[in-house]
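Troubleshooting: if your tokenizer reports a length mismatch, compare your output against this known-good record of 541 residues.
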Amino acid sequence: MGRHENPLDATASPVAALADALRRLRHAAGSPPYHQMARRCPYSVATLSRAAAGRQLPTLAVLLAYVEACGSGDTEVWEARWRHASEALTARHPGRGNPPYKGLARFDHTDQALYFGRNRLGEDLWALTGERRVSALIGPSGSGKSSLLRAGLVPRLRGPEGPLRPAAIRIITPGERPLSTHGPLLSSTGTRPAAVFLIVDQFEELFTLCHDPVEREEFVKALLADQGPSGGLRVVLGIRADFVRRCLDHPGLASVVRDASLSVTRMSSAELREAIVGPARAHGLVVERALTARLTADVADNGFALPLLSHALLETWSRRQGRTLTLDSYEQAGGLQGAIAQSAEGVYARFDTVRADIARQILLRMITPGSGGAPDTRRSVTRAELESLGEGQETHEVLESLTRARLITSDGASVGLAHEALINAWPRLGDWIDRDREKLRFQRWLTEAADAWDAVGREPGVRISPVRLAQLDAHASRAGRSGLTTLEADFLAAGLATHRRALRARRTTRAMGSLLVATTTVAAAALWKQRRLFREHRGGP
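Known-good structure output:
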């Protein structure tokens, strides 16, 4: 006998209409008890019951689990219903349907109204950039550097009270070819009365993604170049703490680290409470005191864990009780350490075999494996690179699912992990990386080499070292070459063709050499025989 549910007016709201549809689906399935449904999915009786209560919109993951627990496989229809209800709810209550928390994504300059807990550090950074032409913000992964640069610094630079009113603010990340990509941005016009601010976020990409030492050196030289006292370019670097040692190898960067840097410290308890309660308050929501106390304690036990905090709050918000974010919802979401893994597994579990493999390929392409003690890091990938893997429609669907779950972010042309915290917080992804670490290193080399080959017009005589070629060809053969983009496969084919031509040429040369030796031997023997016959004819020795 199923649990008794309170009467519901399906016309009262989009949420009520969706809940009514869920109740009818359950009734059509024979009204299975919620405890029986809970055994068929990863959600509790209480969570499933609330999904059909009509008081709040359930998360998409919970709704789809409810549908599947009722024996319905028509998840696409139900996902469309959920999106319709979500959009209608947002239209009715602007702000209520939009989350007050960013999850794994960084805060941007447009998120200033939701950015709390970093006022003191924001003021210190603002003052530093006014005093120094080149400055640096240094902090470990998970300390909120990118958010501080964008939501903490940029609004202050644009404000009316600053000592320097910038003519422009540019934000870049180095990428694989920093100078080639960003060269035109590394100088001001010289005619502007105000400075141009260049914020170089994720400066560590200079070491993890750029493998050309000459381009790396020229990029740093351009950043540090003195452009005169009036106006000019002012540079702010965002550097991960574990890459500071690499910066110290460069005298100019070492000077910036020593004399013009600000370290990102942990939030105090008061700042943490502001970061937790402030965004909810801005949306007219309430955070249960027990939840605030638990979150503060959990973050204190986990060091720099702001991405974990933000994602856990986002998932708690999606499970809120009316206007209140509760401790119970936080625990349902998986807590500080489990929320990311729970969200990621929920998305991955809904993929079929083909899409699950595509998701694995996509996510691994967003990883640069560490070496020599360096940690694994993320890398941005162009959509063209991912779509050329094949299975175009399926790839698009996987990208959309990962983006909706806020596991990856996109700026249009490129996509990447929402935060490096995903690497350590999702065990499945970590296992993939560990299992394929050497393969990933080969793949990063192949991608960069193929891009360079394409940039110079795809020279057909491309040469790859025999050792590297054998390794790459073996890797590609094991994978059936399904994990290669079209460009990578073309580059590998061209390299193999050049290698085979060289082998044929060497064999021909050896054969010609052998023939020449044989011919010379025969000729010498014939000459010796002729001389012998001549001597015998003359009767001489």
